[in-house]
Amino acid sequence: MQLATYLGLLSRSEETLGAAFDTIGQGHSRDAGIYFICRLLSGQCAEHVADLAPVCDRYGPGGDPERLHVPGVPEARDGELGLLRDLQELHTLATFVGSTWLVVSQTAQGLRDDELLALAKRCSAQTTGQVTWAQSQLKSIAPQALIIGSAPQASVTG
Amino acid sequence: MDRIADIWGTRTPHAIDTPWPVRIDTHLDPALGAGDVDRWVQAGCVLCSNGCAVDIAVKDGEMVGVRGRGVDLVNHGRLGPKGLYGSWNWSRSGDRLTRPLVREGGQLVETDWDTAMGRVVENSQRLLEEKGPLSHGFYTTGQLFLEEYYALAVLGKAGVGTPHMDGNTRLCTATAGAALKETFGSDGQPGSYADIESAQAIFLYGHNMAETQTVLWMRVLDRLHGPDRPAIVCMDPRLTPVAREADVHLAVRPGTNQAAMNALIREVIHRGWVDEEYVAAHTIMFDELAQIVEPYTPQHAGEICDVDPADLERAAEVFGTTDRVLSTVLQGFYQSNQATAASCQVNNLHLLRGMLGRPGAGILQMNGQPTAQNTRETGADGDMSGFRNWGNPAHIEQLAELWNVEPEVIPHWAPPTHASQLFRYVEEGSIEFFWISGTNPVVSMPDSGRIRRALAGEQTFVVVQDVFLTETARLADVVLPAAGWGEKTGTMTNVNRTVHLCDKAVEPPGEAKPDLDIFLDYARRMGFTDRDGAPLLTWTSPEEVFEAWKECTRGRPCDYTGLSYDRLRGGSGIPWPVNDEHPDGTQRLYEDGVFPTETDYAETYGQDLLTGASVSEQEHRAMNPAGRAMLKGAPYVPAHEEPDDEYPLRLTTGRTVYHFHTRTKTARAEQLRKAAPEAWVELSVADAGDLGIAEGDLVRVESRRGAIEVPARIGQGRTGVVFVPFHFGYWDEDRSGPDGRARAANELTLTSWDPVSRQPQVKNASVRVTRVSAGTGPSPAPTTTASAPAPGIEVPATVGGPEAGVDEQVDAHEPPTLGGE
Ligand code: SF4
Fold this sequence. Notes:
By secondary structure, chain A is mostly helical. Chain A contains 4 helices and no strands. The longest helix of chain A has 35 residues, at 114-148. In chain B, a hairpin with an 8-residue loop joins strand 2 (39-44) and strand 3. Chain B is globular and about 65 Å long. The two termini of chain B are 33 Å apart. The site of iron/sulfur cluster has 13 residues of chain B, from helix 1 and helix 7.
């Protein structure tokens, strides 16, 4: 059975997503709305990883084929355009995590694993919230970023 | 009577379900007697959101005093200290702005209107051409009139076409609006002040009513002193005058309101106090809410909030076993962590108990500023005019029809830009044309240093329109002199939907003009047109704007169609909706338990309470609320900044009874200025002891953003919590910023906001406090209020003296009733 492999993938993707929230949040800390929500959502990812741990233990070690894993976000990009692009990263990553939960949840149904099913329901609801948040942010800032763009020479720092 | 010393005046106690007696309060220039007054002009007080009706005394073309209107439903003749002393004194002050100013070689110099407006229009037109409407931002206030906001909303949405518009009401009332929208589908105050007469218990959540809305508190006091005293439950970290009267005082750790609220809801559910029939018929999402609150046992929440679990249980019991509870909510929730989520839980408690829409059973989600309600209605806070939904194309179509413009002109692709984001865009130079009217963000917005740098920078052309040269005006490129209250005509709506007319009493000084005239002048010079090429804004008087506004509200929850200037003259203010169905106005909303949540009618599809992410139309439809209220919940999450080793104390900021906002009016009234002349910081006895600080010592309060040095009051607050009043800036010392002598609370606060209402969280920051030097006497904090010194500390009592004399006429006539029946 390959569920263990997918549980491993899920756990690692949650870690990757959590790290991306941290990196991007900190990179855009002048944008307080981004920074604080990223911190909150990164916390959700960490909880998901912790909650998955006993399930992973239960199903034992799975394969860890590198080719399945999703790459993370090494650093945040600068400026309004960079923020827009970074939010797209978060949107993509969270969507991937969401669909991985879907795969796991379907399998849990097949296995009648109620505990995993309940966990998947709770966590994937939060993941959906993360996707929606990224989407809401994209919708709000896209016109400003693309029509006006940032004027870095005039920006205030410190 | 000295109403500085005796803030709430003479008691007129009465029993439950009997009318609140009339008491007419008058204060005139001490040099004048009643016989000297030439005429009295009807208005509403604009020094807080309570909306007391007043008559302005006029002598020789000047305002010389005020008298409460006994015929009015809101105040039954009473006025508070701010209204009595602060309403009119400022108008005669020698430092009024009387001519436009423009920046020349770094200095603001006087000029004429043509030159000033020429610069405004030239910059505006150039930027619209080069960069389009998104280069423009407008930041207004909570202190103009409805007509002025509506004109601004139309010129912003249909003229310029920018989503970048907000009011400083974002800082005072955004959460009230957001919480009502999330629960009931639309803005609109459910309850009425008249519920105080019938309530068996009153819950005040983060609401120091005794200081913020003194007249409303008089109304409560008259019940408390009557034969059948309602129970008072107060949630507030400070020992406020409200807390002193409380049967249960939940002095929660700042930032933990949501945990306490979840515990109250859990208790109501677990102990079987839910009105199941009401919940089944009139709400959705009960199961989700029950699941969310399940972990919040009184013990668990007690630990998070640092309160006795037994007190949470007692509070829940009062709520769960009383038939008529009135709840009020203000800044202790709105400006704190999880503002909207916590405020929604107040709505939820009422829904769970079926306590809405009947006498004594109501909700007052309060406002801070006097006309905050009107920014929400008109859309000067960025919302769509008439409580319309930016996400609903049919609503945008209605506005386009009304204004005769193409729907595409009206920006509606996302929620409007909120204040903090406006300043972020200014800081980045993304907004290059920024117009501030009637507000002083340099003192009122969090992280003042950052706001000053953003406005002082070269990247953005800043227009400031105000009555005085505020800290903010000092940083502008163009300053436009505005007429103030009493110098222009317009309407205003208070917390409980009551609309008042304010007539012009005197001429504005010099070349100062009503804000409405300034906005209309801009629109005319810009040549904004409708889709037929005719001028977009054709109004020439406030009454014409009011008539147009009525059309905008037709069929919406805030229906004004039955009102007119004539109807508002002479008698009481009238609460909306006022239409064919409710010709005399409406005391309470939702008497039938039907809420404006129907997808096609609602003002919003809603947001996620944790992240603020927008709910889509499809998702909303799928929930099928169909007139039922939504029991939205959220888990508790810690505040954005928590104390640590470096900054171990929690800062909370707030108000004092003697000042309004950044004191531009109240500090120009001698009585008020002397009562609270200077900034201070309040420390608990234990913290002061640990830090070696005595009453009156000069101390340094420092956060990651900045520092202030102010005298210490050893007060009665919780250990670990530091309070600084937010009113004090620098204008009265002729500067726009600290210049080495910082005292503004917002030097310390953090840029962060509630994800749903986007209200800045000026009540959450971490600080450290150190002693600088010994003081020369006690701190200047008033002794009559929440800033009273700890027992054993001797400080002279705050008094007003002979200058503060107020005449009180008790039982002058029968109390007014709605519709006069
Ligand atoms: S309670 Fe508010 S509205 Fe009434 S007099 Fe006082 S400041 Fe004015």
